[in-house]
Amino acid sequence: MTPAARISAAIEVLDQVLAGQPAEQALLRWSRSSRFAGSGDRAAVRDLVFEALRCRDSHAALGGGLTGRGLMIGGLRAAGQDPSQVFTGEGHAPATLRPEEEPASADDILDIPGWIRPLWDASLGPAAEALARQMRHRAPVWLRVNPVKGDAAAAIQALAGDGIEAESDVRLPTALRVTANERRLSQSRAYAEGLVELQDLSPQLACAALPVSPGDRVLDFCAGGGGKILAVAGRAPGLALSAHDADMSRMRDLPQRAQRAGARVDLVGKPKGRFDLVIADVPCSGSGTWRRTPDSKWRLRPEALEDIVALQARILREVAPLVKPGGHLAYMTCSILDSENGRQVDRFLAENSAFHQVSHHRWTPLDASDGFFLSLMARE
Ligand SMILES: C[S@@+](CC[C@H](N)C(=O)[O-])C[C@H]1O[C@@H](n2cnc3c(N)ncnc32)[C@H](O)[C@@H]1O
Q1: In the Cβ-directed half-sphere of 42, how many Cα atoms lie within 13 Å?
Q2: GO molecular function of the protein, one example (predicted)?
Q3: Is 57 annotated as a binding residue?
């Protein structure tokens, strides 16, 4: 496909997304109906769509309207390119520019939905604007080295054997930032053999901060694909690891991932007994990961956020009795909004005097990678 044909395809996909379809679904649909498109074309169209969604409102202003065409025209203008060079109407290129597709100023548009902006500003204070601007860029790819299988140097070498370049992070040597050829990862030897696992830096830093001692009973109460429990697995010998999720089907990949990682994780329908460490990586707005899932930023509604906050509070109430006296509760979200983080924890602590907060930290793309929150609490 020519660059102009890829833009035409992105316009088609974006129009579906703007009509309400999730981006992944719209891309899959386009892929299935475009057998002529090679893997390079698919990746390029995907990049165009995600870039447009990260910068939706500012690109719409620059491109003359909130349509697939407007977003692509605005994107070219934002990159300092002349859209009339691409919108030629020739071959598979999009039709020539219309008079109404003139640029408007996008200087004050930060690409945060209007109703979220007050919450965003109140949560992030002086960093709010810089963070909103940072959220318009693509997120880096991070890997976690599995200490059971090898160290960072061995992982970097194995990845290089498959042409993938990665470098270790000073804050956490077992976190590797991929600097070239990330698309080869799923086929790489290091990944297939469980030497590395995909995981953003911020949750890796959070999991590295969890207290685990040999032989501890650890429960991941909202385990999903198991990212957090697997990050804890190699931290100490003899851990008894349990994973639970209200929707057991969310854990379907966990046994295979655990096997690849050389870890044993029991999937439990109803957790029994008490645990030294309970991880509650609760459902959240995902506001810390909007660079990766930019369409969810525009889909979130105030009522849905209220429901999410209420669910988080219910989960905290449910897990509290599962923590042993002397044990720890790790509350985590991939949100950067206070209502889901500090305020949620404050409410829980006010109602549960047996718990106190040992530490808390919020990571953002300005200091780590994705936005992520950890509150570590101890039970008397
Ligand atoms: C943020 S995701 C977890 C991601 C996962 N920990 C990981 O690292 O891949 C939240 C999970 O909580 C689960 N969940 C939702 N409501 C729940 C509840 N009441 N009790 C337990 N799990 C719940 C969801 O099914 C979802 O898999």
Answers
A1: 16
A2: methyltransferase activity
A3: no
Q: Distance between CA 305 and CA 4 in Å, rounded? A: 39
pLDDT in tens, 188-244: 999 999 999 999 999 999 999 999 999 999 999 999 999 999 999 989 999 999 999
Q: Is 207 a catalytic residue?
A: no
Q: Which CATH class is domain 206-379?
A: alpha beta
C-alpha 149 to ligand 1 mean position (Å) = 27
Q: Which residue's CA is minimally distant from atom 12 of ligand 1?
A: 222
For residue 238, give both structure tokens.
């003899």
CA of 18 to the centre of ligand 1 (A): 28
Query: Cα(250) to centroid of ligand 1, in Å?
Result: 8
Q: How many helices (H) and strands (E) does the chain have?
A: 15, 11
For atom 17 of ligand 1, which residue has the closest CA? 246
**Pocket of ligand 1, candidates 142, 221, 245, 292: which has the most ligand atoms within 8 Å of its Cβ, to mutate?**
245
Q: Across the chain, where does the E strand assignment appear? A: 142-145, 165-168, 175-180, 196-198, 217-220, 240-243, 265-267, 275-281, 323-333, 355-363, 372-379
d(CA 219, CA 274): 9
Pocket of ligand 1 (CB under 6 A): 221-228, 245-247, 250, 281, 283, 311, 315
Supply angle C-alpha 156, 230, 179, rounded to 5.
30
Residue 281 annotated as binding site: yes
Token pair listed for 312: 């988080």
List pLDDT tens digits, range 109-142. 999 999 999 999 999 999 999 999 999 999 999 9
Protein residue with its CA nearest to atom 3 in ligand 1: 224
- The amino acid at residue 167 is E
Residue partners of 189: CB distance under 8 A and separation at least 6:
158, 161, 162, 195
> In the chain, where are the structural domains located?
3-104, 142-199, 206-379
